[in-house]
Amino acid sequence: MSQVLNERRRTGAYIRSEAADSSRSREAVIFAAAAAIVAGTVCKVSGGKYVPIGTDGTGAVAIAYDNYDTATDKRGVASVRDMEANGYELVWPAGIGAPAKATAIAALAAVGIIVRY
Asked: Pfam families, alphabetically (predicted)?
């Protein structure tokens, strides 16, 4: 009988390029409890903690660097500036439409995260 292996999303797989010193592109953040955070999730800040953006696409400011178990608030790492992201590797909320995605991409560009397809 064959065995099926399911891999988690790869850490940083969405990164096309970032600042020569990656510590300038990423920083430590707190992900809110009960938020589904996998590597590449487009995030916003709510109540001082990072959560996935909603289907309206507003408020995007970061991309989760890794997979985080968020049963409780969890310290993690996010790309927050000076980088290019592979748009095909980003994790968007279910049901987000093209106009909302464009809103999020523009918000990311405003903080120095360029999404490339």
From this structure: HDPD (PF02924)
